[in-house]
Write a structure and sequence with these properties.
Elements lengths: L7 H19 L8 E6 L3 H15 L3 E6 L7 H9 L3 E3 L19 E5 L13 H9 L10 E5 L35 E5 L12 H4 L1 E5 L18 H7 L14 E5 L6 H12 L5 E5 L3 H7 L4 E3 L10 E4 L6 H13 L4 E3 L2 H6 L5 H5 L5 E3 L3 H8 L6 H12 L2 E4 L5 E3 L5 E3 L12 H14 L4 H20 L6 H15 L10
Parallel strand pairs: 1-2, 1-4, 2-3, 4-5, 5-6, 6-7, 8-9, 8-11, 9-10, 11-12, 12-13, 13-14
Antiparallel strand pairs: 14-15, 15-16
Length: 499
């Protein structure tokens, strides 16, 4: 701001916001004549909304700004809106002098400009009332209005992705059921992604996220809270076959999963590994017959000690408990290769007796807990899932893949990543076994732990989405969808450095 003319960043933001709003209105009959309601708080978010509203008004939209803090409304934005023919209201029915849109009864599009990244806690009055009434409005063109959030949905915890404790409950003094956060269809954010748009329960409130470049990139000097991989990133990381490649140079992954009680876990984890880049899979366990029946190319033995050389191990899914399972886990942890620990292997870690063996390993360790497993290891992750994963990664000296709709990957040296492809369809038994197998295959092929974890989560999420298109999802469908997903990811040549 010190190097640009006053208001430049806000004008850039407003232009990007107005563009997205215009595109949304074009899908519903056009900008001209559309009813647009701005929910305007104090500060710059309200200014962004007002300037964007002015741009839409100049294109023929009928724009009304509901001023939630009239005495603190952005003066320049308000003047611009009025000069363009926009109107204002305090929310009372008909208070805008026209009888239209004054109480939020009718709108084709609602713009949430209430609070931005400086907001804390959920919505308060009169904002909660405004959101309730605006989002219950009807569109003159049919259906409900589209809700567009400015920078972040108002009321979310911006830095962690958490939601207020009373989310969905009535706000004091507001109509019954008035929300304490905005649930947007689209969020237009500026300069860089905010944590709440990519992680935690708040991410679902953001809807589709569009990032508008307003020229901040050269000034972002500090390390990000976390990074989000793109499809191009994952495609570039994925190991490719070379003319001189053979099965051993592609990597050999060992899979110590399943038991007489849970043979399916072995089949599913091997199914995940089969979709990965390694050239050979060695299975060690008591479900060898079931594994070979489904995957005859696997080399099977009864225990880890007899499996032969591998470049990475996957251990835990369906392994059960008892001394036999403990002996297999002990053998896996003693191997000087990367290890993936999942499910029953994590359960065996809870009592702390394995801490020294884990922390003294020289080869990488990756653990893959879901929330309940994480809670048994380190307490519930809470709203700050990234922070919780980073603390556990540092304590265990392991890479943590905290599973969820937005899976978090945290490294022992303090770096964090969030996978964007998660799907509720994956919330079914056995899908974690598939993920662990794929992750082990990527480790055996030579990927760094955090890249292997991210690439596996990314492809696994896409496979869950693909499987869901055919109806209710089981882990078998997810494993089956992985191979075409991987083929599609690796069909294009990876980007070269500097591209």
């Amino acid at each position: 701001m010190a190097t640009l003319p006053p208001g430049t960043l806000m004008q850039r933001a407003a232009a990007g916001l107005a563009r997205r709003c215009a595109l949304l209105l074009a899908e519903r009959g056009g900008v001209y004549g559309a009813e647009v309601l701005l929910l305007v708080g104090s500060g710059d978010n309200g200014g962004d909304a007002l300037y964007a509203g002015a741009l839409l008004a100049r294109r023929g939209a009928r724009v009304t700004a509901w001023l939630l803090a009239p005495e603190r409304t952005h003066p320049g934005g308000l003047a611009a809106l009025r000069a363009a023919g926009g109107l204002t209201t305090d929310g009372g029915a008909g208070r805008d002098g026209t009888g239209r849109n004054g109480g939020g009864r009718h709108a084709d599009l609602v713009v949430d400009g209430i609070v931005g990244i400086g907001g804390t806690g959920g919505l308060r009055q009169p904002a909660a009332d405004a959101v309730a009434r605006a989002t219950e409005a009807t569109s003159p063109r049919g259906g409900r209005p589209v809700v567009v959030a400015v920078d972040v949905p108002s009321g979310v915890s911006v830095d962690t992705g958490g939601l207020p404790a009373g989310n969905g409950a009535a706000v004091s003094g507001a109509p019954d059921g008035a929300p304490d956060t905005v649930r947007a269809d689209v969020t237009v954010t500026f300069g860089c992604l905010k944590p709440a748009l990519a992680v935690g329960a708040a991410a679902a409130h953001a809807g589709h996220v569009e990032l508008v470049d307003i020229g901040l990139t050269p000034w972002l000097r500090t390390a990000p809270a976390f990074e989000v991989p793109s499809r191009a990133d994952v495609a570039a990381w994925w190991p490719r076959l070379q003319p001189a490649t053979e099965k051993y140079t592609r990597g050999v992954v060992g899979v110590a999963t399943g038991s007489a009680t849970y043979p399916g876990a072995a089949v599913l984890s091997v199914g995940g590994a089969v979709a990965g880049p390694t050239g050979l899979i060695r299975y060690a366990g008591t479900a060898a017959d079931q594994v070979l029946d489904k995957h005859p190319s696997v080399i099977a033995t009864g225990r880890v000690a007899d499996a032969g050389r591998v470049q990475a191990w996957v251990c835990g899914s369906g392994l059960g408990g008892g001394e036999t399972a403990a002996a297999e886990l002990r053998a896996v942890l003693a191997a000087p290769v990367p290890v993936v620990l999942d499910a029953d292997a994590l359960t065996m870690l809870v009592d702390g007796t394995w801490s020294e063996q884990l922390r003294s390993r020289r080869a990488p360790t990756v653990i893959t807990p879901h929330d309940r497993e994480f809670a048994r290891l380190a307490g519930a992750p809470g709203d700050d899932r990234v922070g919780a994963a980073l603390r556990l990664a540092a304590w265990m000296r392991a890479t943590v893949l905290l599973k969820g709709d937005r899976t978090v990957v945290a490294t022992p040296d303090g770096r964090a990543y969030v996978n964007p492809t998660g799907s509720p369809a994956l919330a079914t038994g056995g899908t974690g076994d598939v993920l662990a197998g794929l992750l082990g295959s990527l480790l055996a092929a030579g990927l760094a732990p955090e890249r292997a974890a991210l690439a596996a989560a990314y492809a696994h999420g896409l496979a869950g989405r693909a499987a869901a298109r055919g109806g209710p999802v089981t882990a078998v469908e997810v494993a089956g969808a992985l191979r075409p997903i991987v083929a599609d990811l690796t069909s294009a040549e990876p980007a070269r450095s500097g591209d």
